[in-house]
Amino acid sequence: MRNAVICGAVAVSAGMLHPATAGAQTAAQPDSAVIEVNVDAPRDGVTKTSAGPVRGWQALTSASATKIETPLLNLPQAVTVLPRQAIEAQGAVSQSEAMRNVSAVQPPQTTALGQVYPSVRGFNGERFVDGLPNYYDNGDRDSLANVERIEVLKGPASILYQGGPNPVGGVVNVVSKMPSLIPSYQFGVTAGGYGKLNPWFDLNVPVSKDSTVLFRVTGSYERTGTQIDGLDRRSYELNPTLVLTNNEGTKLTLQARLSHREQQDYAGLPAVGTLDRSTFRIDPSLFSADRDLPNGRTDYKAVTGRIDHTFNEVWSAFASVRASRSDFHEPTQFVLGQTPSLPPSTFLVWNGFLGERNTEVSANANLAGKFDFGPIRNRVLFSADINRVTDVGRLDGTPAAFVDFTNPNFPAYVKPVPGPFTTFTDIDNVYVQSGLTAQWQASLWERVHLLTALRLAEVDIRSRELTTASSFHTQESKVLPRIGASVEVVKGVSVFADYTEGLRAVPFFNGPTAPRPEQSRQSQAGVKLDLPYGFSASFALFDLRLTDVPTANPIVPGQQIQSGEQRSRGFEADMVWQPNANWSFLGSYARVDARYTRNTVIAEGNVVEGVPRDSGRLWGTYRVTDGRFAGLSVGAGFQAQSRVAITNANDYFAPGFATVDARIGYDRDTWSVALTGKNLGDRFYWVRQPYLDGRVAPGEGRTVYLSLTARM
C-alpha cells in the first residue's frame, strides 16, 4: 500500500517537470485548481490575496476543504475562514487568540510549553501549516507574523488530511503569506502588558523585473511575562519564501521555517485549593515549581517545496513535500492528582524531565481536472500522500519533597537520573500514515453542488517501549467515504448535508495485542448565507462519534483494551456582517455536548474535559472612511463560555466566564498605530491547563498593548 502511494506521488511530480503541451496558459499561476468565483458584483469591494479573494472580513473561497479553491457557499461542510483583516482588526496577539473567533474551537493554552492542540467540536484537532501536518506542533506555534489566513475544517479530515496525531475533531490550517508582484516592506512592534515586547517584519521583494523570481521573508521575536508569577516566555521565528515561475503555467515555491520557544515549564495548579477552597486556598498566580527551574525549550526547523503546473485548460497538478525536525526539552516539577498527599494542604512534588526528538517527512501529489457536460461543471482530484514520523523520547521522574501549598517552599530542581525505577517511558516509534484519494465535485445549473470522495487509507505504526522491552506493530487499511451536497435554494441561501469517516493512529498502547486505529464518523447539516448588505453566515448541526478508543482493561490491571467510545453533537454558528464601508461585525456561537459514551473506568455520560457546553464571541468595529479623521477605527467585543470539566472524572469544573476587549486604531498609507485592551473588566477566571490528567491556571487579567507599524 505505501509503495503504491510513493509511486503515485513520484509519477505525478515527474509529469509536472515536463513543459505543458497545450497552449492555453495564463501569465499568473494559480496555487491550485480554481472554481471560478464572481467577484464583480457592485456590493463586493473584493480584494484578491495570495490565499484567495476576500471582502473585508469575509473570505469568499477555501482551498483547504477540498484542495480545490471553492466558494464557501458551495461547500457541503462547515468551514470557517479568518482572513488577516479580521485578525488585525481585533488586535489579536497570538494564533490561539485568533482561533477564539471560530465556533466550537478551543485553542491551546499559551502558558503551555508545547505538545498541545486545539479542540474542535469537542475532540482533539490538529494545526496544519499550508496543508501539511506538524507532529506535536513544536516551536513558536503562536506567532501571527507569517499568517495570511486561518481556515478551520470541522470534523474528521482524514479524506485529505491524514497525518499528525489528532485530526479527529478537525483541522486548523494556517495559510502562510506568499510573495506578491508589488514590493512592500513592513516593520512593527507590539508592547505592553506583562512586559510584552514583540517586534516583527515582513519584506516582500520581487527579485526580477519580469516577475519570474519573487521573494518574501517574515520574522518575529517575542519576550513576555504572564499572569503566573515569574513565568516568562521567549520565542522567535523566521520564514523565508522564494517563488520561481516561468509565467507560462509552472511555479516552484520554496519555504523554510526556523522557530524556537522557551520558558519554564508550568504544570498548573491542583483543583483542591483553587476550584475547591473549602479547606485551604492556593495563590492563583503561584508558579508551582522551583523559581530557578531551568527553562524548557522547543525548536522546529523545516523546509517545504511545492510545484504547480498547468498542462492545459483541463488538467493541472500540484505537489508538496516538507522535511522537518523538532526537539522538546522539558525540565519540570509537578504534583500527581488533585488532592493533597498529606492533609490539609501538603502535596508531594516530583522532579521530572521529558526529552524528545521528532523527524517528519510529509509529501502529497495531486492531479486536478475540470470539464463541463452540458449544465454540469465537474472538478476531479486524484491525490496521493504519505506522512512519516520518527518519535524518540524519554520521561524520567523522581519524588523531590513534600510542599505545603499555603506556604510553599519548593525544593531545588534536580534532573532525574534514568534508571529502572525512575524512567516512566522510553520510546522509539515510527508512525506512517498514507493514502490514495479520488474526489469529484459537480455543480448542476449553478445551484446544486455535489462532493464525493473515496480514500484508501493506511496506518502503519511501529512502537518500541524500552522500559518494558515491549513493542507492537499496527498495519491496517480502510476505505473511507465522503459524500455531501449543497443546494442554493434561493440566491445567497444554501442548505447542505455531509457524511464522512476518519481513521486515527493509536501510537501509545499497553495491551495484549497491537492496537487498531481509532474510527470516527460524522454527519452534519446546515444552512449558509451570503446575502445583500454584507451579511454572511454558516449554521450547522453535527454528530461526531469516535470508536475503538483505548481504555483500561477491567480484568488485567495496567493493561488497555479498545472498547471505548465518545460522542459529540451540537449546534454552531459563524457570522460576518459588513452593512457598509464603516461597520463590520463578527460573531460565533457553539453548543457542544461531548461525552464519554462507553468506557471501563470513566463513568458513561461524563463530559469530555476542557470542552464548554456553550461558548461564543462577538466583535464590532467602526471605521471612519472620509473627512479629517479618515483612517480612525474603534472596535470592541466580548467572549464567553460556560463551565468546563478539568478531568474526565468530572469531579471538578472551572466556572464559566465572560471578558470584554476593545481596540482603537489609526491607519495611514505609510504607518499605523493601535491601542488594544484585553479583559478590560479585569475579570478573574480559571482555565484548564493541559497537564497530566488536567490542572487549572488563572486566565489573563487586564492587559493593554500598543502596536506600531511602518510601511514602505
Automatic annotation (TrEMBL):
It is a multi-pass membrane protein. InterPro entries: Beta-barrel_TonB, Beta-barrel_TonB_sf, Plug_dom, Plug_dom_sf, TonB-dep_rcpt-like, TonB_sidphr_rcpt. Residues 73-164 form the TonB-dependent receptor plug domain. Transmembrane segments: none annotated. Residues 1-24 form the signal peptide. It is found in: Cell outer membrane. One of its GO terms (biological process) is siderophore transport. SUPFAM superfamilies: Porins. GO terms for cellular component: cell outer membrane. Residues 253-680 form the TonB-dependent receptor-like beta-barrel domain. Coiled coil: none annotated. Keywords: Cell outer membrane, Ion transport, Iron, Iron transport, Membrane, Receptor, Signal, TonB box, Transmembrane, Transmembrane beta strand, Transport. One of its GO terms (molecular function) is siderophore uptake transmembrane transporter activity. Belongs to the TonB-dependent receptor family. This is TonB-dependent receptor. It comes from Prosthecodimorpha hirschii.
